[in-house]
Each structure stands twice: as C-alpha cells, then as structure tokens.
Design a protein that fits this description.
With about 300 residues, this protein is an alpha/beta fold. It contains 13 helices and 8 strands. The longest helix has 19 residues, at about 65-85.
C-alpha cells in the first residue's frame, strides 16, 4: 500500500526538498545512480562490460518546462554518445530515453520530441548502437508508439517499452511482435487509474506472463525487465518452448538491484543488460525505485536513521 503514496510524493516539490536534504539520501541514491556526470558513469560502463554485462544508459531528468530544456536534454545524450564512441562497445552500451525529457508534454510536444530524439538515434546508430524509448504514464503512450514507428522507418533497431499492468498492453505487444520490434517488458512504475490498469500484484504478474508469451512467439526481440526470480525462471522456460537461442532475447535489471544475479545470468550465457541512470535530476527516478520494492524504502529509512 506504500507504493501509491511514494509515487504521489515523487511529484511533490515539498517532498523533493525534504528527501534531498535527508542525511542518508546520498548513500541510498548512490546505490541506484552511480554518478551525476558522463565522466563518472563511463568507468561504471567499462566495469560492467568487463564482467560480461551490457548496459543501457539513462540521463535522468523529467521536469522539462521549456523547449530550451528539451534541447539541453538532447545535447546531454549527444555528449554521452560522443564519450561512448571512443569505447567501441557497439550494442553493449545502448541508451534509454524518456520522451518527456525531449519536450513531449510541451505545446507541439509530439513533433518537438520527435525532432529532438531523432538526432540522438542517428548518432547512436553511427557508433553501432541504438536507443530504447521508455514508457511513461498511459496518456503519453500513443505519442511514444507513433514516434517509435516513425524512427523505425530509418532505424529499425530502435526499441520501446511496454508495461504489463496496463489493459492495452497485450494488444500493443501483438502489434510490436508482428513488426519485429525490440521490446522491453516491465511491470510498470507509474500510478495509473483502475480504468486503465490492473491494481493487484497477482493480476499484473499474470498479465506479464501472457504478454511475454506473445513476445517470445513473435518476430521481435524480447527484453525482460524484471528482478523477480519467478518471472525470470518463467521467461527462460518460455524462451526454451519458443525455440529461442540465448542471443535472441535478453534480461534487463536496474543498476544496484540484485547485482549478483546480473553476473550469474551472464555467466550462464544470457545477455544481461543493466539499466544505469545518471545525472543531477535524480529525484523522480529515485522515488520510483523506492515505490517498486519495499526493501528499498527500508534501506533508505535505515540509512537516514544511521546518519542522524
């Protein structure tokens, strides 16, 4: 029951100030966000790849209110790509983007977001890697999928994210699987109304498995975004039944969560990609990580108490 409260807090300026000032915040934030600059995150990428892992990089930031801020977000990703170019990692280091950062919510936001994200996708392709469009709340998804379709005309490797808790997602999965898309499936981390989303954890898990079956038997490339051991085991069995080889799907987990499992899956021959966020505007991302798992909130509380 804490998750809705935490998600509401993620949109509160008062809670942002309180959490930012809490003595234990920095310790916990560093568990999930390894740096604020690209220079700080590059060694993390190199370390992950040395362990047999792959990464997807997210420059955090969600409160975009002007076209100038959206352009700055675009430029931050272009700077990241410039740094990755010298590493020669190809698809071992891709990027994840939220279209809200590129101006999607502004006036004329659909066209603005497309105009800002296209050069990022072009630059990523030029160094042999790609971009995945993250899913946000349900009101943004028609625009996100339309931008995804447009980008795939020139860059078919462009991926997107679907969220199991939304009623619409099974239909979205069928379309994407038939179009040979790269698709990350996650449970969902936004507070959504009962009219559009499952609220019960058990129902969400069942939907996740149904959707994963669609993806595994489709023509696309499934990316399993989950830390749930049961869902990971089910994913492996579904892949086996669908006749997929180990390089025909991948697992994705967040930086700082179940790190030993990252290495174990990679050692078994699976593609294992670590979702790694960095940047100064970490609050919204951080609060959703707390909402997703009660243990994360307890860790934060213990750290704060220890520092007091």
């Amino acid at each position: 029951m804490l998750a809705p409260v935490i998600l509401a807090a993620s949109r509160s300026d008062k809670m942002r100030r309180f959490v930012s000032a809490a003595p234990g915040t920095r310790q916990v934030v560093e568990r999930f966000i390894p740096g604020e600059t690209v220079d700080q995150v590059v060694p993390v990428v190199e370390d992950a790849v040395a362990k047999g892992l792959e990464v997807t990089l997210d420059v955090v930031g969600e409160d975009i209110t002007t076209p100038e801020q959206a352009a700055a977000a675009r430029d931050a990703y272009l700077d990241l790509i410039a740094h990755l170019k010298g590493l020669g990692l190809g698809t071992k280091a891709e990027m994840s983007v939220k279209l809200s950062m590129f101006g999607q919510a502004l006036a004329g936001g659909h066209e603005l977001a497309l105009a800002n994200v296209r050069p990022v996708v072009e630059a990523a392709a030029a160094i042999g890697t790609t971009v995945t469009l993250d899913a946000e709340d349900h009101t943004t998804l028609d625009s996100m999928f339309a931008i995804h379709d447009e980008l795939r005309k020139d860059f078919p490797q462009t991926g997107c994210v679907i969220q199991a808790y939304l009623f619409r997602t099974e239909d979205d999965a069928r379309r994407l699987a038939a179009n040979s898309s790269r698709v990350r499936i996650v449970k969902g981390a936004y507070k959504e109304p009962v009219e559009v989303a499952y609220q019960d954890k058990g129902e969400i898990d069942k939907a996740y498995v149904r959707i994963l079956k669609i993806l595994m038997h489709g023509e696309g490339y499934p990316m399993i975004g989950s830390h749930d051991p049961r869902l990971i085991a089910i994913s492996q069995e579904l892949a086996r039944r669908a006749g997929r080889k180990l390089d025909e799907y991948e697992f994705q987990m967040l930086y700082g969560i179940r790190s030993e499992e990252h290495v174990r899956l990679a050692a078994e021959g699976h593609r294992m990609r670590v979702y790694t966020a960095y940047g100064t505007d970490w609050y919204g991302y951080f609060m959703r990580r707390l909402a997703e798992k009660p243990a994360n909130l307890l860790f934060f509380a213990r750290s704060t108490i220890t520092k007091n």
